[in-house]
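URGENT: need a sanity check before tomorrow's submission.

F., can you look over the Esterase record below? I want to be sure the sequence and structure line up before it goes out.
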Amino acid sequence: MKKTILTLLVCVLYLPLSAQITYDEISSSELNTVRQLKIKLPKNYDPSSGIMYPLIIVFDGDYLFEPIVGQVHFQTYFDDMPSSIIVGVIQGSERRYDGYCDEVTGLPKESGLRFHNFVAQELIPYLDGKYNTSKFRVAVGHDLMGNFINSYLFKEDPLFNAYVCISPDLAGTVRDYLGKRLEFFKDDIFYYMATSDKDLPYIRDAVLSANSQISEVKNQYLTYYFDDFKGDTHYTLVNGAIAKSFDKIFQLYQPLREKELEEKVLSYEGTLDKYLVDRYDRIEDLFGIKKPITEEEFEKTVKVAEQRSDLESLEKIGKLAKKLNPESVLGNHYLALHAEKAEDIKKAIKLYEASLTLEETDLIVYDFIESKLEELRSTIELGELEKELEKEKRKIEKEEKKAEAKAKKEAKKNDDN
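Structure tokens as predicted:
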């Protein structure tokens, strides 16, 4: 039921996108023909902006392109993945020739090798030259083309960073040595594979065998995901596989969520400002996108610092927020909160007073700052009153002791007389 609702939602979101899909063609010397392309650019794409976008190449673009466009729109709507350039390769009656592989090696040969070279030597350079593509590339293929995209893994420098192999028709060397090949990468590789209990039996057997191999791979640079769907056929598993694979591949890009906060942030060895910086540096390194740390993520990290009673992290998060957004009230707010918890109330007041000259945020507004100032000033006044009362109390106690000593002295004098 849940999967059905999600599928319907993706379809609803996709409806207005069909008008935004454009068609292009590329003349290929490798194929000695012209190939048709379907292209979906990000919303508000501006070639002069300098913003770079991951490139998603959809093999079997005749029928896989539209579901992927809908899924990408769905996930970017919730900021679960970056806006991307999606290119579907229309293969039509050429598909069998495009995916033609040697039965022994499982790697492209003859017409398949020409198509392999077309993608690597003509299509990708053409797209990189025409659009603002980042260095992160995703390949998606189903069945025959699910096997074909693995051929790029067997090159010294893989063409793609992420591979979505949906019910791939694995063959030969690819089937038998895929796990071994994935052991040797020294750069990040994402690999996703899926089958189902109602998949074509010969495909399912080969996929399960490959999964057993890959599951044993010990490589810190490999991120591997596998799904074995229940009740889906060779074709109906496609939508679920697309959704699951994109969610996993772009997991790092997603906003900080409870699971990451509990499993990684809370137990992080070091100050939490470094966790944030390292996380977003990795997003930039991997996807070629500079994503800003949101106010909500700062807020969640601060709450973890408070949970850890980690005043050092709280102060450093404040300094980081101030550095990244010097015109915003956010950094001052966290620094004031740190001063308050360190019982330096006068410093906290000064920081909040300075905040009134900075820009409000969605969570930290001037009314809140004024209420904090009123609270802290009351604390100062109450503290000063308590000090005065304590001073007066000590004065009275001193006078009482003095009077008591004098009385004892007088009593002793009378006894002596």
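My own read: Residues 162 and 274 are 27 Å apart (CA to CA). Confidence is low (pLDDT under 50) at residues 1-6. If you see anything odd, call me.
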